[in-house]
Write a structure and sequence with these properties.
The protein has helices spanning 36-45, 59-65, 99-107, 124-127, 131-137, 155-158, 165-169, 184-192, 204-214, 224-238, 243-259, 277-286, 297-320, 327-351, 380-388, 399-402, 420-425, 429-465, 471-505, 511-514, 527-530, 562-579, and strands at 2-9, 14-15, 71-73, 76-81, 93-94, 116-121, 148-152. The protein is mainly alpha-helical and 582 residues long.
Length: 582
Amino acid sequence: MRQYVIDGNFTAQHMKMNKPELDVALSDGKGYMVSEGPYQNHLQQSLDSKERSTCGNHRAINAANINKSNPRSTGISATACAQHGCFVLHSVVDFQKGRDYSICSALGCGSERITKALVVYDVGCQWNVNFWSRVKNSPSLLLPPALEIVPAVGKFQLAAHKLSCFPRYSLNFVKGAGHLDGEILETLWAPFNKISPTARSMTQAHRQELVGLGEGFSPRRTSNKCLEEMNQAYEQLTAVLDPGKVSGWELDALRAEADRGEALDIYLLKGDKAPTFHEVQLQLMKNPMTPFRSGGSVAWLAEGISIEDSQDQLRSELQQLPNPMSTSQEVKISMKRQRLSARIEKFHSNGQAFFKGLEINGAFSPQDDPEYCGKEEEGEEEEDREVWGEDDGYWEVPGDEVEELASELMSTWMPSSIRSDKLTELGLVDLLKEERELRIGQANDCLDQLRTDLGNKAMLYQQNFQTANSTREGTRTKKEIQKVVARINKHVRGYQRARQAILRLDPNGDMAEKYQEILPDYLAVSKEVTEENRFGQGTSKLAWFRMMEGEQSQLSLQGGGLMEECKCMLLPYVLLTVVWSL
């Protein structure tokens, strides 16, 4: 199988000539550039139809569709050997709907006995869609009979494509491709760009000869060391896996290579999305009613969790306000406290129907870790310690003091406020399970939002803060980072409330291993983003919540997780080893 790579150079532009009839060609079509006459006939016969990308806003497609009146051509397009980097003779064309002409010229150069060709192109996913129809409708586009073309995308450009393009056009999954990056033309354009500005205003014939001289031959060599490293990694990976699964994966890889297209989607890492709070709530509401399950319990529990979030929001607002507050600020806070207090009172009143006569008292407990609550004023820490006490259990306040508590400090009386064994004795097992499932959805939402905001924080440091050109710009970036940090702390507090409730509802389960504690070190800016060239990245470890998704952690090898990832890592070895035996 021959391997070609096609790419365009937008620097090699050419201006229009005032008197093109005076141009005399001495070596037309005898070098790397195509003959001018047949190529101009092809341009006239080609249909002027703009392609609409279904993948992304790629520059190659936009440049091919753009209309410019002054330049004669917006660049050149060339085809080269994907392995060695040598340009194919008679395949360099001006960038005017000439990519198909370049590819067809390269495929027809000394390929009478070639039945299969690999074509690597930055937008191969779009170029391949209507390629055969364009060849059929154009008499100037000729291909060898019975030639099979395998389209692919270079590894550097593949990251800008949509996810489905990865398995279908990645060079890792093409049988016989070996270790190709598909970007060898980029290394050849660099020295060529030194002479392309000189040829911008030349005549067509002079430019044609100069381009032919500038297209150098830069051979690349492969090494058997790649085969040794690949076999070593293959043996290490298969040694810890089930041989039956490995055999099945190898058959899947060969079947996908034969069918291609959507069959290559087996290389995508499949993982179930962790259920969100609203998804869990909807599923619980759809569950059939039982004699031990009261109607409206799911909505009641969801309202309790919502009240806790509102309390957390009010506490955060109070920390941002000055001390003492202004009159207008006190009025707004008083109104919010009244509305929140009314919600809590109504919530407790509705809860009497679910707790079967169990008395709801005024117990309350600290719900948030001070580490994630912002800075406290002097004296507040000692005052809070006197209120909360030193115990690790639940706090009870005399009845005449309950009414004086601020609404943001009052606790919502939920099943997680009672021991799980006590709930079982009272026959409230269904209520216990419902809150546990809702709390799991709440924890999943907090972790998902936490991962997103941690990424935003790292990108602000890298793209804005580290590259700030003025104090003003740096100050603005710091304020943006502070807003992101406030959201991160909010997610952590919400996760901690959900985790504490889960552990109280299921103390003997494996939830403590799945939903672990979030340490402050986990919230630091990722150095892999801010210091992408630092040493020691290979031994860096991610926080546990970055490797957790779906029903099971990715660290689990049973059923999903890393087992699915091992499959996606092992399948390419079946194809990569073939090229070395050819």
